[in-house]
Amino acid sequence: MKTLNRREVCSLGSRQLSVTVLLALSFMATSFTATAQPADVVVRIEVADRSEATIAMAARDALERTLMLRSGDRDLLAHPTISATLDDAQSQLSLYQFEQIEGRTRFVAQIDLAVIDNLIREADGTMWTASRPPVLMWLVVDDIGGRRFGNTDNEQPLWAAMSEMFDSLGVDLRRPLYDLSDTLLLSPQTLWDAELGPILEASERYGMTHLLIGKLIRLSSGRTIAEWLYRDTTIEQSVAVQAASEEAVMEPAITLAMTEMRRQYAVALTQQSAQEVLRVRIRNVVSRDDYRAVTEAMNSLPTLERVRPVAVEGDTLTLELTGASDAETLSRLMAPLDRLTWIQDDPDIEKGALLRWESR
């Protein structure tokens, strides 16, 4: 066992003491209650004129786009609170203006994300975390010429429409190159048969595990039969549809993928969660700089209404967080924080979590 000399003992004691003193001062001043403030977003929409009707329409479009990008849940648009707010969208903007770019007029709206979060909360919806991965879409087509990869000009409108829809819902949709490296591992028939071994191997080069596999049968009537398979490391689901339009063909795929992505990478933003308190113990907080960095990191997380230090024991700092309903929600929110490591749900606290801070 290592024996500390007097200088090391004093240094260790002073580091722990500084945290204790800082905590005490924080309690005396303002109880160190803090709120994470989301930034404003700017949305630009090309318009035909500057009429009142155009302003109202563009404001609604801007608010709806921001809401979908934040939540990824199209069902929110049918909620009475959301619907009523969209009808009066102009009043929800922080400000708006017009700009002229190469002879075109654009409506520029600035939107406070706190307004968006409050809307989601009133509708008991969900909000994306920052850690969601992209989705890789493989496509195979059965038409008059046989089975082939869906990478021709005929599939370009479908791809463009799906990519745009995924982007609008906050998820990055990508497609493979269908080049020699892919075809060495996959054939159209292999993809049609959904042989997951070769598909997973071919997908590894793109670094993606969330896969959307589409099988399309083009009928002579002009209709399309589509089967969509969504797969990741935890689940596999499929859905089939027969439709006449590209929009109807891709709708089940979007719903399938977004439902599963939200299950894994979104957090509940409800009126109840805004009031619930989660107690978190963070180990290895040994200096004033650590203390400041930990509280700043926690305050940077979305959905948190308050971050309050309540205790310090040795190198362990205890915080009370309001706005994260449970430990799983917190683990999703803190994914971008590389200096905070999840240890486990706290066995000593009914609703708590145990973390470790990486001191520098």
Features:
360 residues, 16 strands, 5-stranded mixed beta sheet
List the helices and strands and how they pair.
Layout: H1 6-30, E1 40-47, H2 52-71, H3 80-87, E2 95-101, E3 104-112, H4 113-122, E4 125-128, E5 135-143, E6 146-149, H5 156-168, E7 173-174, H6 180-185, H7 188-192, H8 196-204, E8 211-218, E9 224-231, E10 236-243, H9 246-265, E11 266-269, E12 277-283, H10 288-299, E13 306-313, E14 316-322, H11 327-333, E15 340-345, E16 352-357
Parallel strand pairs: 5-7, 5-8, 12-16
Antiparallel strand pairs: 1-3, 2-3, 4-11, 5-6, 8-9, 9-10, 12-14, 13-14, 15-16
Helix pairs in contact: 2-4, 5-9
Could you characterize the architecture of this molecule?
It is built from eleven helices and 16 strands. It has 360 residues and is an alpha+beta fold. The strands form four sheets. Strands 5, 6, 7, 8, 9 and 10 form a six-stranded mixed sheet that branches. The protein has a five-stranded mixed sheet with strand order 13-14-12-16-15. It starts with 5 loop residues before the first helix and ends with a strand. 38% of the residues lie in helices and 29% in strands.
